[in-house]
Amino acid sequence: MATGPIALPEGAARPSQLSRQPRRSGLMLGIGTYLIWGALPLYFMLMAPTGPFELVAARVVFSAVFCVLLVTVTRQWRHLVALFREPRVLLTLTAAALLIYANWQLYVIAVTSEHVLEASLGYFINPIVTVLLAVFVQHDRLSRVQWAAVCLSTVAVVVLVVAYGQLPWIGLGLAFSFGFYGLIKSKVGERVDAISGLTIETTLLLPIAVVVLLVVEFAGAGLTFGRTGLGHALLLASAGVVTAVPLITFAAASRRLPLSWIGFLQYLAPTMQFVIGVVVLHEPMPTSRLVGFALIWTSIVLLIVDGIVQSRRHRIARLSARA
After folding, report:
1. Chain centre to alpha carbon of residue 42
2. Minimal CA–CA distance to 45: which of 99, 120, 115?
3. Which residue has the higher pLDDT, 138 or 83?
4. CA 21, CA 3: separation in Å to the nearest integer?
5. Phi/psi at 217 (nearest 5 deg)?
6. Domain that holds residue 140
7. Is a pLDDT exceeding 60 seen at residue 192?
8. Rounded Cα distance, 24 and 20, in Å
9. What whole-number distance in Å separates Cα of residue 103 and Cα of residue 182?
């Protein structure tokens, strides 16, 4: 979901395949997806007094349950079992599962400790991380504009270190965990759809989630699920739906929209999180921190402009080849 030298998502539409009506519905699906992701801090804040470790473990459990129901309704069990029998796919998804668990945990810790601005920073930085992974892992070559964006982001991190008085480890952790998650998932992207992938990942994470829940119950403050009222229990149980539904709508949007449009939409979620952090939670935004964010936003603009230029060049090249 990042601009830059990334692979086209599975089933993503190319401009020549698009008509106006599917593009309009794809745009609505894409906006809806990122609105849900952007509003997640508000959703997680409603979970109080549930702690971050119980919350993420419960999210894994209820996501697994919801995904199993989806697989049953859509009759994908044969495909799912076939994936479980492929060691390479299973190993890849195991690594992806561990990364997404770490990502979820960091994100919820950020929200529950009122560090939403730093969480938004992580997802603003993520496209830059994707670019760096493309260079150092996939050996892609960057344009001068992309290198300028990387350099600006590096300066921004230094500025934010000074502003925070420490390394913004939550933001960097979110950016790199999700960046590597996307890189690993790209290895099996053509074979594993969104629901199958989430089903396998959450199933693999169930043992970790169960252990975490047991530790919280017997060695921590105790579980809140079922002890804080029916409304709270239903809200926590809905985590499976809140996790899976945006993945489904994102997959549908990707099939209807050009990759460049997805690249623009991806900034909607961290922008919403930034607004929530400043307006709702009143997190401090001194000038030094604002300068750091401004540098990040400038690097994002550079990536967007470069993406538009590259897209036009490819389109002109295709038209010339047909002539």
Report:
1. 17
2. 115
3. 83
4. 24
5. -70, -45
6. 18-322
7. yes
8. 6
9. 12
In-domain check, residue 11: no
| Separation between Cα atoms, residue 133 and residue 95, nearest integer Å | 16
Inside any domain, residue 2: no
**Residues comprising the chain, all counted:** 323
Higher pLDDT pick, 63 / 142: 63
CA atoms of 243 and 62, how far apart (whole Å): 9
Confidence check: pLDDT of 98 > 70: yes
Cα(127)–Cα(296) distance, integer angstroms: 10
pLDDT of residue 131: 79
End-to-end Cα separation, the chain, in angstroms: 33
Confidence of residue 208 (pLDDT cuts 50, 70, 90): very high
CA distances from 131 to 43, 149, 294 (A): 31, 10, 19
And the tokens for 239? Answer: 């985590």
Q: Give yes or no for residue 302 having a pLDDT over 50.
A: yes
**Domain presence at residue 3:** no
**The tokens 């020549």 sit on which residue?**
16
Q: Residues 261, 3: contact at Cβ < 8 Å?
A: no
Give CB contacts under 8 A, 24+ apart, made by 134-143: 134/4, 134/5, 134/6, 137/183, 138/5, 138/183, 140/5, 142/5, 143/306, 143/310
Tokens of residue 280, six digits: 């709702």
Residue pair 270/116 in contact (Cβ under 8 Å)? The answer is: no
Give the C-alpha separation, 47 to 94, whole Å: 28
Sign of CA dihedral 196, 202, 205, 207: negative
Summarize the confidence of residues 21-50 as an average pLDDT: 87
- Rounded distance, CA 50 to CA 112, Å? 9
Instruction: Look up residue 214 and give its two tokens.
Output: 């047991």
Task: Identify the three-state secondary structure at position 239.
Answer: helix
Q: Judge whether 10 lies within some domain.
A: no
Name the domain count of the chain: 1
Angle, in degrees to the nearest 10, between helices 77-84 and 52-73: 120
Q: For residues 94 and 275, is the Cβ–Cβ distance under 8 A?
A: no
The pTM (predicted TM-score) of the whole model is 0.82
